[in-house]
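Suppose you are handed only these lines of text.
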Amino acid sequence: MSPQLIVVGAGLFGLTVAREAAERHGLHVLVLDRRSHLGGNAWSEADPETGIEVHRYGPHFFHTNNERVWTYLNRFTAFTPFSYRGQSNHRGEIFPLPVNLATINQFYRAAMSPDEARARLREEASMYQGGPATNFEDKAISLIGRPLYEAFFKGYTTKQWQTDLRLLPAETLTRLPIRYTYDNRWFNDKYQAQPADGYAAWMRSMADHPRIEVRLGVDFLSPTAEVNRGVVGRVPVVYTGPVDEYFGDAEGRLSWRTLDFHTEVHPTGDFQGTAIVNYADVEVPWTRIVEYRHVHPERDYPADRTVTVKEFSRFADTPGDEPYYPVNAVEDRARLTRYRARMEAEPLVWFGGRLGTYQYLDMHMAVAAALSLMDNKLSPYLQTQTVGDPVAS
Ligand SMILES: O=c1ccn([C@@H]2O[C@H](COP(=O)(O)OP(=O)(O)O[C@H]3O[C@@H]([C@H](O)CO)[C@H](O)[C@H]3O)[C@@H](O)[C@H]2O)c(=O)[nH]1
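From them, the structure of the protein bound to LMLM4SSZ can be written out as follows.
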């Protein structure tokens, strides 16, 4: 096949673009990924000892309000309903999260009504006397007051980000709802579900098209790769790898958090009774324990064994570290502005996805952004151009 579009990165953004280009425009699309599997960080596989599906790069819970994204993805996988409900271990006691009426009442040893709880948190929050709350700490204190912030957010976020919490953006906090009901679903979205046959099957189904060729283990940025950046300017490229790496760190390294995982198999059918328990206190070195069997209660998993994964967060500063979370501290934002100018000037290259745009994208956001790139930029371009100069395959 002679590629007419090259997609670098086989994550959800890249696969959506590839599929759309193949279907809408009949293009031959070459998808490259330096990893040995599809799906980016959404990849999952069966634990060899128990058969339980484990998300290799940490838990992925699909959720969206976007009808178009939901309808689109249902072409590639069936979904089973799954609403993630959070729990947090604070000083040896389990509290429901995100902060809701049960959390507030348990924390204050009270039986407040929704109105009473609102009034109580308003009173706590009124202690905040600063200016506009634009950073994580100020935002948290101005919303829920210092006691709840210090119990459930300060220690956890310090462990997760290891950055001064006054330098983290407020949006990191506002990913989580605060509710005055007993609802502890993590997300508000209309659709909350898991791919019925797992993430690997979903990703393979997206890539399964006669005009899409996938080559794994190919690093587009390596000059010795069989297809590499030498094609830039001749063939349209959608690049979803790290943007700073693409430009040789010319504007400085963007900071990322990475995760280390500690997997254990236990001789019991249920280790913690739920999919995730967060550990709020800074003295506990891990951020959370994930027990994957609870993500698929409908499956026939072993009754006498279960697998858990402890997560530890740190800066991605060693070669080979996987970038997970853009830290997005003040100096990162300045660097990103300069990278954006370079991205604009790069001929025939469209940047996308979490790594390519340095954005904290959930799965549905990656798909929506890919569809939007097709609608607003790539499709208009492809309709007016003769796509030529196929690269040797
Ligand atoms: O106990 C907690 C939990 C969270 N925070 C802070 O809130 C930030 C946002 O939380 P969240 O988006 O859930 O967490 P994370 O960034 O780790 O996202 C990963 O988790 C899943 C999913 O959200 C379920 O957990 C998602 O798919 C992943 O990207 C968080 O960064 C903390 O700063 C807290 O303080 N205490």
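What can we learn from it? The first strand starts at residue 5 and ends at 8. The longest helix spans residues 363-384.
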